Amino acid sequence: MVPSFSYIRARSLDEAIRYLSLDGARAYAGGTDLLGCLRDRVFDVATVISIAGLKELRGIGATPAGGLRIGSLTTIAEVARNPVTTSKYRALSMAASEVASPQLRHQGTIGGNLCQKPRCWYYRGEFHCLRKGGNQCYAVEGENPYHCIFGGENCFIVHPSDTAPALVALRASVTIAGPNGQRTVAVENFHMPPSEDYTRETVLEPAEVVTEIVLPPPAEGLRSSYRKVRARRAWDFALAGVALAIDFSGDRVADSRVVFSGAAPVPWRSSEAEKVLKGRRLDRDRAAKAAGAAVKNAEPMEQNEYKIPLFRGLLEQELMAIA
Questions:
Q1: Which residues on neighbouring strands pair with residue 214, listed in sequence order?
Q2: Which of 50, 184, 191, 196 has the maximum number of C-beta atoms within 10 A of its C-beta?
Q3: What's the average model confidence in pLDDT over 161-178?
């Protein structure tokens, strides 16, 4: 049952930020994650501040530099089907189309998808785990088949977003507004690893709001993709996923960004795979070497070692597909 709370519909961004400074205030955009968290009593809330009516936070359009600006309240469905994302930022369009179910894609927002809470069943359940202020991560000695194989320290969640790895691969940034004005943060640096603070998912400070996502102009030889492996075909989170953004110069890889989903508490960029690819022809042997390098330093838990061959095979297949 959802607890009682006060509800305020903000009429402007400044008003939203002012109300979000209240104790126990939470922002409401699409609501697909917030309402689930309230129902599961993941956190307490005194006041829900709706920003859903702020039209300036919606829409997709070109930037003066030739890139793309996506308002944070733009729905996942809009991002998936936009002609510019499908043609120039294919990884993002593909990732958006893999989010949850059609109904949730039409309700959920791109900003919310970046900021969503983890799906760990201990965090969402009746466990006072470390991330909720307790003194232990129950996944360490409990059921952990879906937990991380990279970047685990203190807390072993996996980041649930599909769009975040694609945005990292495409060098996107977010604009953040708050009581102290605006700032810009690369999506690669937006999520908070548990080694730095295991109680937070993002670098957002109290009363701050993501207002837009900005993608740079794509390089001339860019090819990008996203693929997700899950237990069910629809309405499920990634067991393993990979976003690729590869710049080709002729038949060689000039630069690449390889980012995993379902692997770590944050979107996990594999510099090991990228080093193997740089300056080389992308053939089957090179793809296999890159995939092997990507999982070399994985640290699986008791029940999720299956993820190592899953990620290795997934990355090898996707590299060959993009070649």
A1: 69, 173
A2: 191
A3: 98
CATH number for the domain spanning 170: value is 3.30.465.10
Q: How many domains does the chain have?
A: 2
Tokens of residue 2, six digits? 């959802």
307 and 184: one domain?
no
In a shared domain, residues 281 and 309? yes
Q: At a CB cut-off of 8 Å and minimum separation 6, what does 151 contact?
A: 193, 194, 195, 263, 264, 265, 266, 268
Contacts of 278 (CB under 8 A, 6+ apart): 253, 254, 255, 256
- Per-residue H/E/C for 260-292: EECCCCCCEECHHHHHHHCCCECCHHHHHHHHH
Tell whether the model's pLDDT for residue 141 goes beyond 90.
Answer: yes
- Asked if residue 24 belongs to a domain, the reply is no
Residues 232-245: what's their mean pLDDT?
89
Range of the domain at 310: 222-322
Whether pLDDT at 245 is above 80:
yes
User: CB of 253 within 8 A of CB of 280?
Assistant: yes
User: DSSP strand E in 204-250: where?
Assistant: 209-215, 222-229, 240-249
Cα 226 from Cα 318, distance rounded (Å): 8
Residues 193 and 66 in one domain: yes
Out of 183, 215, 247, a domain closes at: 215
For residue 109, the model assigns a pLDDT of 98
The CATH number of the domain holding residue 251 is: 3.30.390.50
Token pair for 198: 């295991």
**Residue 280 falls within a domain, yes or no?**
yes
Using an 8 Å Cβ cutoff, are 239 and 307 in contact?
A: yes
**pLDDT averaged over every residue in the chain:** 96
Q: What's the distance, Cα to Cα, between the start and end of the chain in Å?
A: 50
Decide if 107 contacts 75 (C-beta within 8 A).
yes
Amino acid letter for position 15? E
